[in-house]
Each structure stands twice: as structure tokens, then as C-alpha cells.
Design goal:
The protein is built from ten helices and nine strands. By secondary structure, it is of the alpha/beta class. The chain has one domain: TIM Barrel (Alpha-Beta Barrel), CATH 3.20.20.370. α4 crosses α5 and α7 packs parallel to α9. The longest helix has 24 residues. GO terms for molecular function: hydrolase activity, acting on carbon-nitrogen (but not peptide) bonds.
Length: 247
């Protein structure tokens, strides 16, 4: 199969604030930072992806799709795809079972109304996947999840393809502790080299309000340049999930 790289973007918007942003509407600084991710960070990321003809999988909460329908609808255009990231971005492990199921149903409905198709993939907010939500995903016919950390390679969990993640490969924890983009780039390049050496797939996760800043987006550019130079295939999560399911 050869080494593969999936760029995944969590487009949280204001839903990424505590409680899905509820009660934060009057806190204009917090709200504007999250809006920046949609209006400024996201176009910058899309520009880098276009320069490399790189497809990406965008994980979007339902309320973010409802608040920014034009921007989210555009993400469904080829070669990209939109997947489910909860409805209000509340962590599943903090919710009772009925609310976990409602988050899945309402988030799917919101994405269908905006992008015109039902999502086939899911990523738990905070990567806090629970048994209840996993069972609901399977019952709803989802094809893949990208929330767990049980392997470096894709694997299966209760009939779903799992496309594993890790905190070290996510921009958010890195920039919670430093402002230096070079550190994140070093980690991503080292993991890309390991994926090439081990002939496997790799997922990286980024956020428009974080890596979409002008002085940080070069991390994505340099990662993609290294991947193309090494002959790594750039793939969406749906393509990987389909290949694993039929292998």
C-alpha cells in the first residue's frame, strides 16, 4: 500500500468553547478568536492544501455548520470531505446516554442540511469516545471513527474502521505549552519519516484558529512538501477506511 498521510482539520468554531459555546456570545474576545478560525485561518489552510493538491477531511460540529453554512458547504467540494464532530462539541463522556445519541442525530441532520449528504465518519469531541456513542455510530451505519489511540495503523473496532490519532500529532496540545511552530514541525516530520519507514498510514490533526495563523501555517506547508518529496500518498479518511474495510 505504501506510506499515506491524511490531513484532518477540526473546524470547531465557537463550538470549541466550553459547553459548546453556550453563554459565550457576550465574551467577544473568545468568540472572535473562534470566528477567526473560520474566516481567516480556514482560507489560509485551504490555500496550502490547494497548492499541493492535497485532500483533507474536515471534522465539523453541527452547530458550526449551522452558523457558517457557506464556509462549511465549500469544504465538501472535491477533493475534500466533511465528517461528523458532534453537534455542540460537548464531550460524549460528560453526557448521559440519550444526549450522546441526540448529539449524533442532530449533528448528522445539520451536516446533511448544509453539505447535502450524510456523514460517514466521526471524531469525538475531545477524543472522548464512549461505548454508547460507538454503539450509536455502528447502528447509524457510520463507516469509520477517528478518536482512539490503540495503534499506529488503522484497525477495526466493533465493525468500524478506526483511524487512530494521538495528542502529539495534534496542534492544540503543542500550542497550549509553547508558541514555537518549529517544535510541532519537528514532531510531525519525525512521525512522517517513521510512517515511511514502517510503510503505514499517518493522521495529523489541526485547527484553523491555531495552525491557520500566518506564522504557523508554514508547518503544514513543510509537512506536505516533505510528504510529496518522499512519495507519500495524500489521502482522505474515507479513502483509507474504504481500503481497510475491503482488505
Amino acid at each position: 500500500m505504501g506510506a499515506q498521510l491524511s490531513v484532518t482539520v477540526d473546524v470547531d468554531g465557537a463550538a470549541g468553547l466550553p459547553r459548546g459555546g453556550a453563554g459565550y456570545e457576550h465574551r467577544l474576545s473568545c468568540w472572535s478568536e473562534r470566528t477567526y478560525g473560520i474566516t481567516a485561518g480556514l482560507p489560509r489552510i485551504l490555500g496550502v492544501l490547494e497548492a499541493f493538491a492535497a485532500p483533507a477531511t474536515f471534522y465539523v460540529p453541527g452547530v458550526t455548520a449551522e452558523r457558517h453554512p457557506d464556509e462549511i458547504a465549500a469544504l465538501a467540494d472535491a477533493p475534500h470531505e466533511v465528517a461528523h464532530h458532534g453537534h455542540t462539541h460537548r464531550f460524549p463522556n460528560t453526557l448521559p446516554a440519550d444526549e450522546q445519541r441526540s448529539e449524533l442525530i442532530e449533528g448528522s441532520a445539520a451536516l446533511v442540511s448544509v453539505v447535502g449528504m450524510a456523514p460517514r465518519g466521526y471524531r469525538a469531541p475531545g477524543w472522548e469516545l464512549t461505548r454508547v456513542t460507538l454503539d450509536a455510530l455502528r447502528a447509524a451505519g457510520f463507516a469509520w471513527d477517528s478518536s482512539l489511540m490503540g495503534d499506529d495503523r488503522p484497525y477495526t473496532v466493533d465493525g468500524l474502521v478506526e483511524l487512530p490519532v494521538h495528542w502529539a500529532l495534534d496542534d492544540a496540545p503543542h500550542f497550549a505549552h509553547t508558541t514555537d511552530p518549529a517544535g510541532l514541525l519537528a514532531v510531525w516530520l519525525a512521525e512522517l519519516a517513521a510512517a515511511v519507514d514502517e510503510d503505514r498510514h499517518l493522521t495529523v490533526t489541526l485547527h484553523p484558529e491555531i495552525l491557520g495563523r500566518a506564522h504557523r501555517v508554514d508547518v503544514l506547508r513543510r509537512l506536505l512538501d516533505a510528504a510529496v518529496t518522499a512519495g507519500v500518498e495524500l489521502v482522505t479518511h474515507s479513502a483509507v477506511a474504504a481500503a481497510v474495510a475491503t482488505a
